[in-house]
Specification:
Blueprint lengths: L4 H8 L3 H14 L11 H12 L3 H19 L1
Length: about 80
Amino acid sequence: MQIDQKMLNRILTMNDEQLAELIKTIAAEAGIDPAMLGLNPNNVAQIRQALGSATKEDLQQLNSVYDSYRQNRRK
């Protein structure tokens, strides 16, 4: 999965419940137990704020880290 600016903008239009569900889905696909994330309205708002301030370079780094993690997980 690659996140570009267009996808990020769509993600940011989600309400908090939708965003939390998306985060849980991504975590589960990456092999992380979503229950361990401890998502609540406060940290979902903080995640939204962090995503909203992400630069193009931040997105490239995020994609690189995610791809590397997924490749290592398959080995």
